[in-house]
Design a protein that fits this description.
Layout (H helix, E strand, L loop, with lengths): L2 E6 L7 H14 L4 E6 L1 H4 L6 H18 L7 E4 L5 H10 L4 H5 L2 H7 L8 H15 L5 E3 L5 H18 L8 E3 L34 H10 L18 H13 L4 H8 L4 H27 L2 H30 L5
Parallel strand pairs: 1-2, 2-3, 4-5
Helix pairs in contact: 3-12, 4-7, 4-13, 7-8, 9-12, 10-11, 10-12
Bound molecules: adenosine-5'-tetraphosphate.
Length: about 325
Amino acid sequence: MNRIFSGIQPTGNLHLGNYLGAIRNWVKLQKDYECVFCIVDLHAITLPQDPAELRKSTREVTAAYIACGIDPDACTIFNQSTVSAHTELAWTLGCLTPLGWLNRMTQFKDKAGKHRENAGLGLYAYPVLMAADILAYKATHVPVGEDQKQHLELARDIAGAFNARYGVEYFPLPEPQIFGTATRVMSLRDGTKKMSKSEESDQSRINLTDTPDMIAQKIKRAKTDPHNLPDSVEGLKDRPEADNLLGIYAALSDRALDDVVAEFAGKQFSEFKGKLSDLAVATLSPITAEMNRLMADPGAIDAVLRRGAERAGGMAKRHLAEIYDIVGFLRP
Ligand code: AQP
């Protein structure tokens, strides 16, 4: 059976982008694939994190996975730091990753900003750890949002470099799976910027923990432009905010973008925003309620993670032993 690996960083509130670009797709895939879903806490510390918040977010992301419909009995759910094979394999893979490949990664450039010299080695090496996450399970498919496409291409290159260096066909080349109309949900304050957990303004995103009132307020205040809504998808060109809001509507209602554009053609933003708000609340409220219920019992969440760590750890350890044999490490 084909195997999926994917993960989310416990770096703050999960938002609509994480839901539409990632988790919602995982829910649909779980019946057709063997699934390994990780809470990537090692990636989280590539930027400074408060330890107590990191622990809380790790449980919160776990609760979100389950509340969105991931079945913890059928899928493996665990936090990355509990399986040491990720960091061990990252070293082996790092030794065959040319710096030139890493220098091309746009996420590093974005996150390191102008202070590149002060950025940590971890932030720079992040894509190698991500390759190790995927390859430790010999995953064949990786469902992600559009923003992770470049990292995934690098993971494929690294898998190919390992196979070529050792003359083996050990790693499958993992296929990216980028689905739907909301592969890149943009900020509500600026339609040219990705909706992100680490963006300072909470008004820029809809969090999975927001109340219906908060969702409605954020959509009401979302940036727009002075025109009415267009009557064709081509009319969304150079109108990033309209494009984003209509794209969110299409994704939430599981409809094609042109269908949604036709429905709201010529309408004012205010009317459309009311409908979008109702749809977002109807979709997210049951998830928020279930997350709150799950978060009230941290012991049960930890039990899911413990079970997941055992399963994931067993699989990754077996693969790591095979990899070490290929590399030529003596295991006396
Ligand atoms: N805006 C988005 N639209 C669509 N998909 C998105 N994803 C993230 N943002 C969007 C997808 O969510 C998964 C998990 O992402 P992550 O937590 O590993 O980190 P990220 O991509 O860096 O997300 P953030 O919110 O921007 O986190 P911070 O601010 O901490 O860096 C991935 O599949 C991603 O594609």
